[in-house]
Every structure is written in C-alpha cells, then in structure tokens.
Give the backbone structure.
Amino acid sequence: MENKIPLFERFTRKPLPFPRITIETDPKGKPSSEEYVIPPEHKAEVLALLYPFVGCPKLTARKLDIHENKKFVIRDFKVVRERGANLLVSPYYYNSGGTVIDWC
C-alpha cells in the first residue's frame, strides 16, 4: 500500500528521538506543549529535516521573528511538540507564537 501522507508531514508528525520537557499542560494535566532538548551536534540535522522552504539557512544566520520583532541566531531555534506535530519555532515562541513561517 502506498503511503499517501506527504513526506514533510511524515517528518513533522513523527516524534523526534530527543527528550522533551513539558512546558504547558491541559486541564487534565496532560502535556499540551513540550519542548525538545536537542543537543548542539544535532541542531543542523533537525533544522534541515523540519525547515519547510527551499534554501535552509545556516545555523549562524540571523532571522527576524516578526511576532516578537526581534532578531535571533538560527542555532537558537526550538522544536516544540503540540497536537501531535513537531513545530520549528523561534526562541521567542512562548512569548509571541513565532513559528518558522514568521521568520524573515
């Protein structure tokens, strides 16, 4: 049987092989937002896996999180797991919600 799930979605839905820290819980006490603890030596690999656009930036590049209106170095990105998906987010995600689509 052919896998009809798009390739990118397969990577974003499958949990990554790194430990997670619970940041927020739902009313029943179950994790609703977890942040992966990604070792520095795996950052480039994870960025390449989850970056949804052509031309993945280098870890030393700087981007602007348009929600926070602050620049950050790409190596400071975070990956959070919410609603069964891995989200590539800025270091300001928990302040203002900036995901990879909000970087410029």
